[in-house]
Write a structure and sequence with these properties.
Blueprint (H helix, E strand, L loop, with lengths): L2 H8 L3 H26 L21 H9 L2 H32 L5 H11 L8 H10 L6 H5 L6 H11 L4 H9 L4 H12 L1 H17 L2 H6 L8 H10 L6 H20 L1 H14 L1
Helix pairs in contact: 2-14, 4-8, 4-11, 4-13, 8-11, 11-15, 13-14
Length: 280
């Protein structure tokens, strides 16, 4: 008996589950497919029915016009720089804080940890005005630093990493101390390598959050040369509000790096999000 027949015998609803999963996948993929078909239509094309968007003729001239006449690649670069630096700094700070809360003993440790937990209860929108005033008083508005620094405060990352570091045996820590490891070497050489899956989860969530962040860059950036994708694309779309073609083309170009990244790091992304959901 084949493996598929055995699986069907064990779970009689498996074909239904597969069919539902397939239909759900098509529903999620349809907007992306429609976007790429629309981006290939000649400028000024009119559609009398939704199916007309999928019919020829097609052209790549829209992509040439967008690449030569817009700053989409600059927006992608800015988003990548901000997301990469935000992720690195967030991982560094949250992992050190989590190690301190998990494996070090100091006064008011529990009270400070409760303070981090309380940070999850404050909506991000409630911090926008004080954050804007602080960054403005530091002269960091309309700079990369002004985009990056507010994003590195991540109490959720501290909580996820602490919950994982708590699982590292204390006997291992004591043994390393007997071998002459100081606190930094314990953090860097012992605990952090054991927490690679947790670090990956926090890194993925941080980068995705930074890549998709719209509100703070929209408020903090004035210069078009510093626009990130979530800010640049709406600005571009507002100039072409009466046509689908060019806005869909710029959205398609902006989606290509994300799609490639997902295909390359699919396993890590799924494991990271699943891990964060279990531990959080």
């Amino acid at each position: 008996m084949s493996q598929t027949s055995l699986e069907n015998k064990r779970d009689p609803f498996r074909p239904v589950k597969v069919a539902v999963a397939f239909i759900s996948a098509l529903l999620f993929l349809f907007p992306i497919i429609w976007m790429f078909f629309v981006s290939l239509k000649p400028e000024g094309t009119a559609a009398s029915s939704p199916l007309d968007w999928f019919a020829p003729p097609y052209t790549i001239g829209n992509y040439v016009d967008i690449i030569l006449g817009s700053d989409v690649f600059l927006w992608i670069w800015n988003s990548f720089i901000v997301g990469f630096l935000t992720t690195i700094l967030t991982l560094l700070l949250t992992s050190m804080a989590a190690f301190a809360f998990s494996k070090m003993r100091f006064r008011y440790r529990k009270a400070l940890y409760l303070f981090f937990l309380a940070g999850l209860m404050v909506p991000g929108e409630a911090m926008i005005i004080p954050l804007y005033e602080i960054i403005g008083s530091m002269g960091l508005l309309d700079t990369y630093a002004g985009l990056i620094l507010p994003g590195i405060a991540a109490p959720l990352g501290v909580i996820i990493l602490k919950s994982f570091f708590d699982g590292v045996p204390n006997e291992l820590i004591e043994s390393a101390k007997l071998d002459g490891c100081n606190d930094f070497r314990l953090y860097w050489n012992v605990v952090l390598p054991l927490g690679k899956s947790a670090v990956a989860a926090v890194g993925i969530l941080t980068f995705i959050g930074s890549w998709n962040n719209f509100l703070w860059p929209f408020l903090a950036i004035i210069s078009e040369s510093l626009y990130t994708l979530p800010v640049g694309i709406p600005m571009f779309n507002s100039n072409y509000s009466e046509t689908y073609i060019l806005p869909m083309t710029v959205n398609a170009i902006a989606s290509i790096p994300v799609i490639i990244a997902f295909l390359v790091f699919e396993k890590q992304i799924v494991k990271g999000v699943s891990f964060s959901g279990i531990k959080g």
